[in-house]
Amino acid sequence: MAARDFYNPAMPHQRLDALDALRGFAVLWMTLFHFCFDLNQFGYLQQNFYTDAFWTMQRSLIVSIFLFCAGIGQAVAVEQGQTLRRFWRRWLQVAGCALLVTAGSYWMYPKSFIYFGVLHGIAMMLVVTRFTAHWGRWLWLAGAFVFAINSGAGYTHSNWASIAFLDKPAFNWIGFIGQKPVTEDYVPLLPWLGVMWWGMAAGQWWQARPVTPHPRRLASALAPLAWLGRWSLSWYMLHQPVLIGALMAIAALRSVH
Question: How confident is the model over 184-232, as pLDDT tens digits?
């Protein structure tokens, strides 16, 4: 969620700008990553984005930043008394965009379309974190527990044939799988919920600290990142159609000449 949704004049604006700037950094990194992915799809690069650690690690870090920021954002929202009505209104925006991503990806990649990507995961995790905000410091342990469970998924699947049904698409949203599904983006509850829980725990810890009477303003050089972070959902939905459209236009021009 954009930090502008949580703004309170009594709270130092610096705290929200910093969150937006971190999210904006993730947006910029994501855009560069997707641009390279698109260049690869159009034949300008020769890379394996699905197995090469150089690319898969970047994806994991980008997703982690987004989910961590979302957790902090929820902590700020709860602290500032965001109503459930406002929460569900924002949630519907995220969920609606997730459905649009599914539709668009099915048009481009019918055999590996996105049915539970980052927006789908965020939509579900937002509900979980909203209603577990009262766990307080236990959120740190809950996040660690989620990662511990996920780390044993491969071993459990190889020894307990009775849970093989969790590998079916209908249950992939849980994430306790023995084999990763064929899809262009996959962000299930396990282990990613742990990252958002840690974000909420960090946000609650952050807000519990004493507030300095005159906090430093965000460096002017970071202002563009803060702006980008405030419009992260809109940017997410528009950047790929723009990038792909531009590459398709270039390809069409090249074919003419």
Answer: 999 999 999 999 999 999 999 988 887 655 556 788 888 999 999 999 9
Q: Exposure of 256 by Cβ count < 10 A (0-12 exposed, 13-18 middle, 19+ buried)? A: exposed
Amino acid at 105: S
With CA atoms as reference, report the closest residue to 204 among 150, 147, 142. Answer: 142
243 with 34: CB under 8 angstroms?
A: yes
Q: How many CB atoms lie within 10 A of CB 202?
A: 16
For every residue of 178-225, DSSP letters joined together read SS--S-S-B--HHHHHHHHHHHHHHHHHHHHSPPPSSPPPPPGGGHHH
Q: Where are the domains of the chain?
A: 3-209+227-256
Distance, in Å, from the CA atom of 169 to the CA atom of 235, rounded to the nearest integer, reads: 28
